[in-house]
Amino acid sequence: xxxxxxxxxxxxxxxxxxxxxxxxxxxxxxxxxxxxxxxxxxxxxxxxxxxxxxxxxxxxxxxxxxxxxxxxxxxxxxxxxxxxxxxxxxxxxxxxxxxxxxxxxxxxxxxxxxxxxxxxxxxxxxxxxxxxxxxxxxxxxxxxxxxxxxxxxxxxxxxxxxxxxxxxxxxxxxxxxxxxxxxxxxxxxxxxxxxxxxxxxxxxxxxxxxxxxxxxxxxxxxxxxxxxxxxxxxxxxxxxxxxxxxxx
Amino acid sequence: xxxxxxxxxxxxxxxxxxxxxxxxxxxxxxxxxxxxxxxxxxxxxxxxxxxxxxxxxxxxxxxxxxxxxxxxxxxxxxxxxxxxxxxxxxxxxxxxxxxxxxxxxxxxxxxxxxxxxxxxxxxxxxxxxxxxxxxxxxxxxxxxxxxxxxxxxxxxxxxxxxxxxxxxxxxxxxxxxxxxxxxxxxxxxxxxxxxxxxxxxxxxxxxxxxxxxxxxxxxxxxxxxxxxxxxxxxxxxxxxxxxxxxxxxxxxxxxxxxxxxxxxxxxxxxxxxxxxxxxxxxxxxxxxxxxxxxxxxxxxxxxxxxxxxxxxxxxxxxxxxxxxxxxxxxxxxxxxxxxxxxxxxxxxxxxxxxxxxxxxxxxxxxxxxxxxxxxxxxxxxxxxxxxxxxxxxxxxxxxxxxxxxxxxxxxxxxxxxxxxxxxxxxxxxxxxxxxxxxxxxxxxxxxxxxxxxxxxxxxxxxxxxxxxxxxxxxxxxxxxxxxxxxxxxxxxxxxxxxxxxxxxxxxxxxxxxxxxxxxxxxxxxxxxxxxxxxxxxxxxxxxxxxxxxxxxxxxxxxxx
Lengths: 248, 560
Hints:
The complex is a heterodimer of chains A (248) and B (560). Chain A has a single domain, classed as Four Helix Bundle (Hemerythrin (Met), subunit A), CATH 1.20.120.80. Helix content of chain A is 69%, strand content 0%. Chain A has helices at residues 26-61, 63-71, 75-100, 104-134, 146-149, 167-171, 173-206, 216-241. In chain A, helix 3 packs antiparallel against helix 8. Chain A starts with 25 loop residues before the first helix and ends in a 7-residue tail after the last helix. Chain B has a single domain, classed as Cytochrome C Oxidase, Chain A, CATH 1.20.210.10. Helix content of chain B is 66%, strand content 0%. By secondary structure, chain B is an all-alpha fold. The chains are: A mainly alpha (248), B mainly alpha (560). The interface between A and B is large, with 37 and 41 residues.
């Protein structure tokens, strides 16, 4: 956020309680913190990168399995979740703004809204996971390829709802569902950690810690939260949308 | 301040021992009690905590190396069963790589020196620095747990599907250990990068930084970008073992080669994580003991960055025999040879630094010479292995074992010991005993060569690695190697003993026993808690010995 509410001259020592003594200036501290956060996000990109690479590889190898398996995902809930997450990110951005204009009450409210929408996302996600459980789409113990080899018949048309896969290709849908669970699960784990941090930030914001010119924790958490949003913005099209086309 | 003439065979200049004392106020005496160490934010104290912990794990890993060499003394499998032997070399590898080599120089010397060299009071994130040490301990404890519960026998490479389907040892515990230790390394790297970017003292421009900082910068980039990929790979291995997800399982359509790609995407750069900080040490030592600015400073600085950059694009040379496409093998072979160029730039520049320098042979310099020779051999045999035809013959033999031990032990461990001796007076305020330590340096060098030179021949003759029995005709060379390992072991025990001794009885070192130019030598030893009484303004280039001479003259005239 380029908002500079207080301008500090270099080498001017303004000691606020949050100023750590090993930094020469408060500005240096703020820059170091935000730089560190960006670097951390870089490591996160590499962390998710391994999974994205696996997705790329197996999508190329087992394209038909990926198409059919992808069609089993719940696009409606995925789309709702995308909206929910973007809304949550919007409130986070507002939170950073209110921290900078030193409005304690609004900051707390914005963080609460961020948390609520974050939890809503996780709730919808749980519902989706449950649906996978019912359909035997959880890789590992009870995974079943039955529906991919013998697609259910549509009541009205009397035709199969999906193109049937040969059993060996149908087996590879398990890899798609594993990647689905690994990627969205890792994303959800980041959300859960984020919500934990939000609770702590709300408590401190309510004490007024971040509305006296010291906004670095709010800013840096905002970066983290937006990063988690962006991961989802890649996951949603790659997992839900990219293979979707009407079955004729 | 003594003014007598410096003898020609040494540059060591110690204060008058009759009157000299260790400064009463320093980072060690600043606070007392165990808690003041366990909860410290001081980078120097954290460095000492790291030094103690990595030494502990070094000797555990070393004990396994000893057992391996003992088994290989005879061709028959007579000391341990093959399963136990597999566990020995796996634990040796895991402990030495993840708990010793990766944190060795950065977490100890780097932690201690980076802020001082840059003219800062501490690293940017002292709490994260402490957290990194605790994560290291958790990683170490998990490794010990895996060890005590019965060990792991996958090899340190966790090759799938061996590690996921065919072994019933503590792969998950060991995987978690490396996962956690990895984050300790990420945090160290992150701290260094931010500190270099944001906390240099006024006047400390990028090209006035000591080369130690440049090489740590390059290594940090590798830590930050590479380690997370290892982390996710290990998560996948654990999931494959527990849930059977199939991503590396060929029977479910998964690809074991994918594991190799992901694993080596970290583990090849990890080699440079291990060696680059060591190269930084060598630059400092060579310059100080030949009284010259490092030849081609800019080239050496950029070669570190080049190694970091190229290092990310050579990983598939570990997979030439695993059925990767011929075309990609060609490209990776070429890139592997290219990465030798920046390393060679360093070796040549150090050689030119020595040229016409006023060389003296104190212990750190002896270790540095050891490094230059052994690393060159290790590096050149790496080019053998990088060429496709040779690799088919040599890979998975003792040739490769000898190759990476020349780089890691002959290179990095020599550099680590060079650095520990070089900065020991700064860290503790006392000198180590010079003649004994020279003996240790020579012993290490002789022991090392005796251990690993025969292994090149063994490998070339076709003795495979990772077996506990071998044909009769290989025995002579194996006996030589085991004898060498014994000498090497003594070479490593000696510093432990005399450095411990020197803590109490060593000569008082004074601020700048080597008359070196780095910022760390311009402050008291051991340093104060926040390093400087006031933040220095840097108005001289790195390795400017004339600046130092002028400064010393001024001090003498003002004091005298």
